[in-house]
UniProtKB/TrEMBL annotation:
One of its GO terms (cellular component) is acetyl-CoA carboxylase complex. Residues 10-266 form the CoA carboxyltransferase N-terminal domain. GO terms for molecular function: propionyl-CoA carboxylase activity. Residues 270-513 form the CoA carboxyltransferase C-terminal domain. Gene3D superfamilies: 2-enoyl-CoA Hydratase, Chain A, domain 1. It comes from the Bacteria. This is Acyl-CoA carboxylase subunit beta.
Amino acid sequence: MNSPQAGGSGSTRLAELLELRDEVRRGPDAKATEAQHAKGKLTARERIGLLLDEGSFHEVEPLRRHRATGFGLENRRPYTDGVVVGWGTVHGRRVFTYAHDFRIFGGALGEAHAQKIHKIMDMALAAGAPLVSLNDGAGARIQEGVTALAGYGGIFRRNTRASGVIPQISVMLGPCAGGAAYSPALTDFVFMVRGTSQMFITGPDVVQAVTGEEISQDGLGGADVHSAVSGVSHFVHDDEETCLEEVRYLLSLLPSNNRELPPCLPAGDPPDRRCDVLRDLVPADGNRPYDMRQVIGEVVDDGEFMEVHERWAANVICALARIDGHVVGLVANQPQSLAGVLDIHASEKAARFVQLCDAFGIPLVTLLDVPGFLPGVGQEHDGIIRHGAKLLYAYCNATVPRIQLILRKAYGGAYIVMDSRSIGADLSYAWPTNEIAVMGAEGAANVIFRREIAASDDPARTRAQKIKEYRSELMHPYYAAERGLVDDVIDPAETRGVLAAALGVLRAKHADLPVRKHGNPPM
């Protein structure tokens, strides 16, 4: 459609407006839409339609066009400038969103494009509502030069300002290269779709030119790489429809902002429901693995929970769920992976999750079965001290209700770091199978009684006796409870009821941090 003409009657102007709106909704020619669908990708408006409640979308600046000249841009001035922005509702709650339109300039960001995003980000922060970005763009618009780069800087600054104030979710539905990848990295959650979304700072061609390594786009920065190897992506899905439905579910578990509590739903699952299966689920033998997800499924409402970073650092589980209708964050060691030890990646994963829950008023329940930190030269040289301190700092700094539950092993520094009473947990419970100690009985006996064992006529027998002695003296189930470091030793079948009651009494908890600009956490 040509630019609107001056003059004309009111009815002519109205007809012109309706035609213009229709053109904006259609977007570029049908071939561009067909090409998008041929790649297994939806259009920007189709994606927004799946994200938001039907009929709730209110678009902002649909008639915006760029003012750039040169390289033929003055002759190509499509409406929206390649990004659709606005607000709507998800399950009846207000959400702001922007969606790149790959059909226009490949979704590349120019000055006008960036200003639209800046506006909707500012509106989301002012309104105290979540922001969801639907990313499918080719990075900065090269023809606009430094103004495009400045546009990204404005996005990054707003991401940082909104951090911990409103939930920010990035949904990767196409390419995201160069500096553009840093906006998703600054947000709370990143979703990716297999086969169509990639993220990298330097693409395969640059990698090959500089290092000689040959790799595909998916191999370098695809969904599976970022969900299982780099940890950049929190969730990965096979198609856009499933992905966006999961985004809606995640939003149902989050508050609108840091001044509100997460939405509470009526609980159809009785809070005091017994969990008799837990009595036999966890083997008393500390060397036998089990699936901690089964424990979580027994404890939370209706067995439903949303695991974050499921495929990365699998030796620790981070999940959102409900107990008695109220949202909680769960951090748990996973004995099925690396025996549940803490290592660099697990520490980073759990620290970020604890920080997120604390920022948005989500109570924390920590389930322990941890034999310690992973030993090894590689871990030490790569900074396990620094990375483990991230988790320690996150817990110590958290002011939300915090409950610790010790199922089995709780050894050494890992016991302290996993929200022990000594670093501020409000309540600590343990099962009768708990073993809280500086280290395992075998290792402790070797250190404490090494001379006696070495001097013995039967070292093996003496060692076995000393191990038994150490267990009976320092590792019996009630040792920590006798010293006030565990509030109670409970029947595993009563776990759900105990947690529900504890969370209920802590719901009114209020704690103030010292006055300061901010702390200086380990990075």
